Amino acid sequence: MTGASDGAEVIPVTDPATGQVIGVVPAGGELEARAAVAAAADAFEGWRRTAPAERARALKEAARRLRERARDIAELQTLENGRPLRESMRGVEEAISKLEMYAELGALHRGHSLPGEWGATDMAVREPHGVVALLVPWNDPVAIAGGQIAAALVTGNTVVFKPSELTPLSAIAFVRAFELPDGVLNLLHGDARAGAPLVADPRVALVAHTGSVATGREIARVCAERGARCLLELGGKDPLIVDRDVDPAWAAEQAAGGAFANAGQVCTSVERIYAHRDVAEEFAEELARRADALRVGPGLDPASEMGPLIDERQLAVVDRHVREALDGGAQARAGGRRLDGEGFFYAPTVLVGARPEMLIMREETFGPVAAIQVVGSFDEAIAAANASDYGLAATVLTASQANARRAWRELDVGTVKVNSAWGGAPGAAPHPRRSSGVGGSGYGPELLDEMTRVKVVHMKHAPGRAG
Ligand code: NAD
After folding, report:
1. N or C: which end of the chain has fewer CB within 10 A?
2. Which is higher by pLDDT, 443 or 78?
3. pTM to 2 decimal places
4. Which residues pair with 209 in a beta bridge?
5. CATH number for 281
6. Beta strands in 20-166 (DSSP E)
7. Which residues are bridge partners to 459 per DSSP?
8. Taking residues 32-45, what's their average pLDDT?
9. How many Å apart are CA 151 and CA 435, to the nearest integer?
10. Is residue 138 part of a domain?
11. Which of 131, 310, 344, 88 shows the shortest CA–CA distance to 211?
């Protein structure tokens, strides 16, 4: 494995629970990106010729080492991104299970034969792309990196992995668990100054970016210009619909879990709520009670149920959305403000009186804010939920089978969750809609398709030379 920069510039890593710098990493740039790609390109021929079973074995060994180091890596992730430790542990466990899953599936990943003419063999063969660049965000860094690295490596690609500049320390610990030939897995530190030249490098055949819409669009543009493939898993503004026939206290429990987990910094957080007027008041009251009762504190404190926001910039985004809603006539039933003291904490917030034109109902907030708009019918809720630039996931809470069926048919998103704000099959492979992504396939077996390309082979026998 190659390291990153030997340049003099560094990027400080901050604990969002205290605002204190806890480490530094080299600030990679064009030179470092080029070196990482060169190492990956050099290693490609050797790695693609390595037997799939052997590639799979390397992943299983990494999974075993990760299991031994799981708690240390989870603690590092919590130190860097503030997530409560038990959630970080789940992220590390998810990464391990993805390594194991792709180790099993990757060795079996196959093309197919085609019905061709008699005397010929026609095949669709799956081949690795070559050098794959993985750009990973900070909010669930280990789990995301684990799935993508595993799927890319097991299919014979070599990888340049660029973690977020906000969470590089857990990435270093994660990558150390892999024992691979030189150049097969390369860690590139840095921010956009490292990411942009990586994406632009003509030797990178596939770019997989998980992150914000703005960055994703820029990456899509650069890839389109040079004819490279890209997979984009981007932001969300997920709606939650509360139907008139559900228990409002149970609905509030679902909404609280959906809106406040990881302080709302999950791509599929509940970001906007459409509550039927028959239950809206009771629902809002119970949700505010839950928000007020949440124990907010450093992620390493086992008593903490919700941690801080990632940084000052994110705090400013959340506060701007909330202020604009309050100025426009919404009311805060809970929270609505930054918490005093060190670190980047924002109070779990419940807003009532939200309206469609407000930022809080339109743009990704990525904070612990549950904004409620009252609706008069299920039709109105579905229409409002669909009236968004985003299309990642949606939740509907309803006791009506007919409305549940309508919801999953009519909601124009990649994932529909009925009567549960979280959960889903571990190998699910949704296709995000509109601004939420292009060509992504989650972490199911389909990701192996994305990490490979098809070559069609038509083969006949040549007659031997006479004599
Ligand atoms: P981001 O797009 O700013 O950064 C993601 C990665 O891209 C980082 O490694 C970053 O350094 C790199 N990067 C930034 N600018 C770049 C550029 N110009 N060229 C190349 N690389 C560049 O996103 P973020 O703030 O780290 O993450 C939060 C976002 O990620 C939210 O919008 C969230 O919804 C989204 N997200 C989506 C999913 C999903 O599966 N759909 C999962 C997790 C997070």
Report:
1. C
2. 78
3. 0.95
4. 135, 232
5. 3.40.309.10
6. 20-26, 112-114, 120-128, 131-135, 158-162
7. 121
8. 98
9. 24
10. yes
11. 310
Q: Are residues 275 and 243 in the same domain?
A: yes
CA of 288 to the centre of ligand 1 (A): 31
Question: What would the pLDDT profile of 186-237 be if each residue is shown by its tens digit?
Answer: 999 999 999 999 999 999 999 999 999 999 999 999 999 999 999 999 999 9
Count of domains observed in the chain: 2
Chain segment 399-411, per-residue pLDDT in tens: 999 999 999 999 9
Catalytically annotated residues: 233, 267
Instruction: Look at residue 325 and tell me if it is in a domain.
Output: yes
Together in a domain, 274 and 376: yes
402 CA to middle of ligand 1, Å? 38
What residue's CA is closest to ligand 1, atom 39? 233
Q: Is residue 387 predicted with pLDDT exceeding 50? A: yes
Q: What is the pLDDT of residue 1?
A: 39
Structural domain containing residue 46: 10-234+436-457
Q: What is the overall mean pLDDT for the chain?
A: 95
Atom of ligand 1 nearest to the CA of 190: 11
pLDDT value, residue 441? 63
Which residue's CA is minimally distant from atom 30 of ligand 1? 211
**CA-166 nearest atom, ligand 1:** 26
Cα 136 to ligand 1 centroid, rounded to whole Å: 6
Cβ contacts of residue 17 below 8 Å, gap of 6+?
Answer: 82, 297, 298, 299, 300, 307, 308, 342, 343, 345
Asked whether residue 189 falls in the same domain as residue 336, the answer is no
Q: How far is the CA of 218 from the centre of ligand 1 (A)?
A: 11
Residues with CB under 6 A from ligand 1: 135-140, 162, 164-165, 191-192, 195-196, 199, 209-212, 215, 218-219, 233-236, 267, 364, 366, 392, 437
Q: Are 27 and 9 in contact (CB under 8 A)?
A: yes
Query: What integer pLDDT is reported at residue 7 of this predicted model?
Result: 55
The candidate with the shortest Cα–Cα distance to 174, out of 146, 147, 138, 212, is: 146
Q: Indicate if 180 and 301 belong to the same structural domain.
A: no
Q: Averaged over 45-51, what is the pLDDT?
A: 98
